[in-house]
Amino acid sequence: MKSATFPSLRVDPELRQAAESVLRDHESLSSFLEDAIRSSIERRRNQQAFLERGLAARTEARNTGEYYSAGVVHQELDALLAVAESRGDYKK
């Protein structure tokens, strides 16, 4: 597959300097930008999926009339957190 390019990006010199100041050893500005773009795409996809799940849950709750209080949800989340902490999967 052929590679493609992004359009040139004009930025303030301060932004470029800030980006260059956080480059890791042997990392180019181009690879940093590519990684930032990939991360942003993934974050936006995750946000969209989160919103879709939330809207689906809202629709299901409306259709079934089954709702949960914040207190019940917090208790369940606390229980999940306690299990994760006991297994060592989560540390405060």
What would your notes on this structure say?
- The chain has 92 residues and is mostly helical.
- The protein has a domain at 28-87.
- 68% of the residues lie in helices and 0% in strands.
- The protein has three helices and no strands.
- It has helices at residues 13-21, 29-64, 70-87.
- The radius of gyration is 22 Å and the shape is elongated.
- It starts with 12 loop residues before the first helix and ends in a 5-residue tail after the last helix.
Q: What proportion of the residues form beta strands (DSSP E)?
A: under 5%
Count of strand segments: 0
Quickly give the structural class: mainly alpha
Radius of gyration: 22 Å
- Please work out how many helical segments DSSP would assign: 3
Question: Could you name the ranges where pLDDT drops below 50 across 5 or more consecutive residues?
Answer: none
**In sequence order, what are the helices and strands, one letter per element?**
HHH
Helix content: 55-70%
Query: Which of globular, elongated, flat, extended, rod-shaped describes the shape?
Result: elongated
The N- to C-terminal Cα distance equals: 45 Å
Biggest sheet overview: none
For the residues shown, what is the average pLDDT?
Answer: 95
